[in-house]
Design brief:
about 200 residues, alpha/beta, four-stranded parallel sheet, about 5% strand, elongated
Amino acid sequence: MPWEPSRNPALGPRPSAPVPSLFSVAVKLLVQHIAAVSSLWGVPDSIRSQLAAAVCAQRKLSPEVALLFGQDTPTELVIPDCSQLDAKAMSGLLQLLLKGSVDSEDGALSPPQAAPSPPHAAAAAAADDDDDGPSSPAAAAAGAVRLERLELGACGRGFDDKAAAVVASAGPVAGLWVWRLGGADWWVRAITAGAPVAAAFGGGG
């Protein structure tokens, strides 16, 4: 019986690199065009943090992109490298995360306007509004803070006295159990000196 190869030898050797997953391709595409993304509404928080890590790896964490990750009242946010954020950007991000909005004096750092929702999304939002729960669109629009985990790495450059004042003025955030500010060790010690702290509140890394 004549033998025939299952693959045309003229195509050359098989590629050694594995085929990337659809998720990794989507993340790469989002990172490439992150400046054009207007909203991450509906993106699970765990994926939001993975996207933030990929953005940091490509050095694309601009002040506007940082605020993009803080929109929509996430329950967790991990940004491993905030070294690109200056004091104004860091203050604006902390205001959005801990207070639900950015002060008018920092209006230049306002998050991008979200694109209009399709009709079916609007209907779902209206249905969710009926329960008035903490994760409903109405609660998000009202600036409800739902943070349970916040980790900002390498934020020493932007974490100054104004950023510390934002943290102090926000007061205790109910449900925030993990809070790490990498590179802001001195500020962490100063802020927490006379106040209760979260279960895992660190400044290293």
